[in-house]
Amino acid sequence: MLVVDQLTKRFGANTAVDNASFTVDRPKMIGIIGRSGAGKSTFLRMMNRLTDATEGEIRFEGRNVLALKGAEKRAWQSDCAMIFQQFNLVPRMDVVSNVLHGTLAKRPALSTVFNLYPREDIHRAIDILERLGIADHAAKRAEALSGGQQQRVAIARALMQDPKVILADEPIASLDPMNAQIVMEALRRIHDEDGRMVIANLHTLDTARRYCDRVIGMRDGRIVFDGTPEQLTTGVARDIYGAGADFSEDATSTEIRDPVAETEIRQAEVAI
Ligand SMILES: Nc1ncnc2c1ncn2[C@@H]1O[C@H](COP(=O)(O)OP(=O)(O)OP(=O)(O)O)[C@@H](O)[C@H]1O
To answer: Where is the ABC transporter domain (predicted)?
Structure first.
């Protein structure tokens, strides 16, 4: 259903993504790992057309999405919702309105100007917030929420688009380990229960191993690993990160070893 074919992006002399190819035959949860500057964000930005490719194709369900223009391009951007490290919410706006922003692309311009949302959209927004365990915060300003809660609002906004693919660019990089787990659990459940493809750039190996079905490793713009979490051995990881013999997985770990925090996570997971 997704074919990335010899995809390249150059910024002047710098090749950010270098002849990358892979195929996904059914919705999966995919983690992309690699050190800073490996090309992970550039790849996601090409996927949802925030950045144009220099060469190559991305075909989704048979169509080259890199060639789409106008309304078709906007429809594709709505089909592959993006979540960012910094949440990108409107801080002073309440949570429900932030979530309803996810429908903007599909609504007439005038209703957008006057902030008019159909009743069924408001109900759907609340349902999604409930599903993510944050409906109690619906009326609060987004800026009043914790980072983990804000990221769940961003996920809710993405779900309002009813996307086929969720692209998450370092979704937990700004979160403490407890909130990181809650957010990753939410993404995993959305994948399992809705059958949506999730592609997440992740900076920690253990997160990729724990939540993803498939891991793609990038180094200097190239795909240097593509396999299951089990195949992602320490030796392979060392290769992806280009680290020496002193490479330590603990340096990239988000594991929680605090039993109180573990209990809080389980409670939050029940709510999702
Ligand atoms: N708009 C841009 N203009 C010029 N160079 C860019 C631009 N965006 C990215 N690059 C370069 O492309 C390369 C890949 O960057 P990219 O952000 O995709 O990597 P990354 O793996 O996502 O790293 P990070 O985790 O630090 O964001 C880097 O060398 C970066 O400097």
So the answer is: 2-245
- What does the block give as tokens for 60? 């989704």
> Is the ipTM reported for this complex over the cut 0.85?
yes
Please answer whether residues 85 and 167 qualify as being in contact, where contact means their C-beta atoms are separated by less than 8 angstroms: no
The residue whose CA is least distant from atom 11 of ligand 1 is 16
| Residue with CA nearest ligand 1 atom 17 | 41
CATH of 2-271, one of 3.90.950.10, 3.10.20.340, 3.40.50.300, 3.90.1200.10: 3.40.50.300
- Cβ–ligand 1 distance for 42 under 6 Å, the answer yes
- Residue 39 CA, closest ligand 1 atom number: 18
Q: What is the pTM of this model?
A: 0.88
Task: Give the per-residue pLDDT at 108.
Answer: 57
**Counting atoms of ligand 1 from 1, which one is nearest the CA of 170?**
25
217 within ligand 1 shell (Cβ under 6 A):
no
